[in-house]
Design goal:
This protein has ten helices and nine strands. By secondary structure, it is an alpha/beta fold.
Length: 261
């Protein structure tokens, strides 16, 4: 099965193309620290570049896999809207993939130096905490060991990240388990995580990069959404909290109502 996979949950745009034999091509766009993410302008051209490298046309794509977050609001909207549009126009199957699980799986690839097809995407042998920057001084986290997953339902502040091992054990993780944290959030909150006994690779490590190959592998294993425009709309972004604009509106509303009273 030919799978085009991409993720826009972080600053980076990660794209992969899984070929029938299991080989997966991948490409990334990593903007500089203060640059605007290139999701809207780069995503389709990056996919076209991989298709050209594989000497395939758009019509060869059988499945679209898209990272649904959690992550940056604008990036998720761009990625999922693009995935829905491609799935309808090609046509192709559509699968939503957890960006946190893909991050953890990509770290396994980088750690073991293997291609996606040589690793088991269902089971992660290394105890991994995937951490994605949520901005506002917070991070989203999901934890993976074997085929078990513990996803913390809200964005975590540094003090909570420092106690994340305690939280995991309360949710059923093995006591005394050693964890390794990866992702842009892990690099940002490195001190808090290390203070809590979690191993964190240095910020420049490839283990922190969300990999398009992992999106493709998880997408190949996933159950596609039913066909049809309304059915495809079931592939939704995992925002996990209200957008900044919504929160700002809520903060202003009481003041507006008071002025009218």
């Amino acid at each position: 099965m030919i799978v085009l996979g991409f993720d826009t949950a972080t600053q980076a745009t990660a794209v992969g193309l899984r070929l029938p034999g299991g080989e997966t091509l991948s490409i990334r766009d990593d903007p500089a620290a203060r640059e605007h993410p290139g999701h809207a302008t780069r995503l389709l051209s990056m996919a076209a570049e991989l298709l050209a490298r594989a000497e395939l046309g758009w019509s060869a794509i059988e499945r679209i896999a898209v990272g649904v977050g959690p992550g940056r609001f604008t990036g998720l909207r761009v990625g999922i809207a693009t995935a829905r549009g491609l799935a309808q126009s090609l046509p192709a199957q559509l699968v939503g993939v957890s960006s946190l699980r893909a991050l953890a799986l990509g770290a396994t690839y980088a750690r073991n130096g293997v291609e996606g097809e040589a690793a088991d995407a269902r089971s992660l042998a290394q105890a991994t905490i995937a951490v994605i920057d949520a901005r506002r001084g917070e991070a989203f986290a999901g934890c993976y060991l074997g085929d078990a997953e513990i996803v913390l339902a809200h964005a975590l502040r540094p003090a909570e990240l420092e106690r994340i091992v305690e939280q995991l054990e309360r949710h059923g993780a093995p006591a005394g388990q050693r964890w390794c944290a990866v992702g842009d959030g892990a690099a940002i909150y490195l001190d808090a995580l290390r203070a809590g006994g979690v191993e964190v690779p240095d910020p420049g490590s490839p283990l922190h990069l969300l990999d398009g190959r992992a999106i493709c592998e998880l997408g190949a294993l996933g159950t596609p959404a039913p066909s049809g425009q309304e059915a495809l709309a079931r592939v939704l972004p995992d925002y996990r909290r209200s957008p900044d604009a919504t929160l700002a509106l809520r903060q202003r509303t009481p003041a507006v109502e008071s002025s009218r009273a």
